[in-house]
Amino acid sequence: MLPSGADQARPARKSAGKRRIPQQERGIKTIEVILRAAGEEIARGGLAKLTTKRIAEAAGLSVGGLYEYFPNKESVVHALASQWLERVKDAVDAIHPSRTGCVDLIRYLNMVYDAVRPLYQDVPGVSVLISLLASVPALTALEEQIDLQVNALLTDAICRLVPYVSKEQCSATARTITILDHHLLIEMSVRGPASTAVYDINHRICRHALASHLMLLNEQAQPASWAPPRPEAPPDVT
Fold it and tell me: Where is the HTH tetR-type domain (predicted)?
């Protein structure tokens, strides 16, 4: 994780509870608008300049309207980070081979990368949210929980695609993929579009190397196929 500054970590120590959980579609959409507005405000000015007034104005609400859903800005930030983590998990779950019918490991790893990449590049304020994950205990606990779920999804998928490789090896590869994707996508987000092509090429090489290694292990571990028995020689009638 990227280390967070003291000015970023301090505000999120307050209560992160919501005032109410909306059940109706309109309330759920309002929550989405608030979280999107908060992300955009974080992207523009960071956490130091974030206030409930700024969030409310960006969302087209009064401050009182915002308070119907969130008691303070810390709870908004907590909800935004939680939503991002859940979306990462959902993206990985959606491309599991049992859902997509994918039978090729290299293609699957490419699909994983393509699924999570927009969540790092297109979500406003994501770099600040990621920095919070290591500094706010409640978010750290949630990140660990989601991380275990994502690793389990990846492990199960890899085991399906290379069934003769041990689960331990598949799990280790899944963890490697998680770390590789996460840190390279953070670097791409920080360095900007100019570095995207280079990182994409390097990332593709790493994915292919990991997949090729597992595919070779899978091939080597397959039971030897027995050659069909030779037909018996005709009896000697001489």
Answer: 28-88
